[in-house]
Amino acid sequence: MSEVLKRLRERRANVWEQAKELADRAAEENRQFSGDEESQWQGLNSELDALDKRIKNVIDGEQRAKDTEDAFAKLEGKPQEQRGGRREREQPVGGQQESELRRFLRGDGPRFFDVVPDGPVNFRAFLNTGTAAEGGNTVPTSFYDRLVAHLIETSAVMQAGATMLNTASGETIQVPKTTGHSTAGIVTEGANITPSDPTFGQISLGAYKYGTLTQVSRELIDDSGVDLEGYLASQTGRALGNAFGAHAITGTGTGQPRGLVTDATVGITGATTVAGKFNSDNLIDLFYSVIAPYRASPSCKFIARDSSIAEIRKLKDGNGQYYFQPSLVAGTPDTLIGKPILTDPNVAEVAVGGKSLVFGDMSQYFVRLAGGVRFERSDDYAFNTDLVTFRALLRADAALVDLTGAVKVFQGAAT
């Protein structure tokens, strides 16, 4: 770990302790924050958010520096070291498709290029290897994987472990949805057993088209030292992720995917006199409104927007312990009541009638990706500015497939 990263983590822990001290003081005196204290609280939370971003940027920068060092070592014929001192296998990252992509980006091939996964894709396994500390440094990463990684990091639902279905084409597929479970009861000797079957419906997953344009200068393309693939992967992945991520939370299902919150059921409704806010008891009620098998899932998580998490950070249990616990390890999410909590700006804010906190087994939300990502290149679209335009198209759909209560929301009172 570098000294810069070490200092940033120490600063984050110090800021969190200051925030706790501020909240503890107000709680011990049984009062709300004063105006100055509220400003200080907001400032500390803003600094925590800024430190989180800086820590992530430093980690990414250190990884890029290591990758660059490895690349130069390879050009100079030096052995490349991995953890444990083993030499890295001499093979191009991304294989043949990657070299074809480079030719396409420089205009040495056809006008279009389809970026598809190399065989079956296990996205949850890919997310694990996407973290350097969990083996990411040892896994060759294709352009497709890098693009999807950026798409995932902009959508909390996809980060949370939604089930991914990747199909070669975009025809509508039928996915069964569970609307009720079987029941059982005591049967006396000789009596008939009442049939009880689970009830199912069907969800049609189509392929809504998302598109984005990215323009790159001719000089950037001609400069062989620029990681053009990485740049396009990040810009395209984030743009498509932002567009799809909004629908993954609140999509209506009409002309767009069905959102997680759209199909989730209300686990707890707040009090009528607090303008839609939740309290510590509401957190416990929401937690236990999701039954144990779903709570035990590795994909069981909380999702809320930043302003809601700022409110959650103030809440404590009967022993004075905060429900919210910040992560001290980069890349590991903060936790709420022992479960990871992720941020997504598309979740409603705390308000009357607002569904401001989501909790449940996110693997019951199915995301269908159809046919990879199609890239197309145009040298004429921005001819007068000498920019090359890349168009990226992604087809996707999504819906919650278990409607028995796998995912619940907190909703502010209607009045």
Automatic annotation (TrEMBL):
InterPro entries per the UniProt record, alphabetical: Phage_capsid (IPR024455), Phage_capsid-like_C (IPR054612)
Segments forming domain Phage capsid-like C-terminal: 135-404
Biased composition range(s): Basic and acidic residues: 60-91
Annotated Pfam families: Phage_capsid
Gene3D superfamilies referenced in this protein's UniProt entry, alphabetically: hypothetical protein PF0899 domain, Major capsid protein gp5
Annotated compartments: Virion
Region of interest (Disordered), ranges: 24-45, 60-100
Protein name: HK97 family phage major capsid protein
Taxonomic path: Bacteria, Bacillati, Actinomycetota, Actinomycetes, Pseudonocardiales
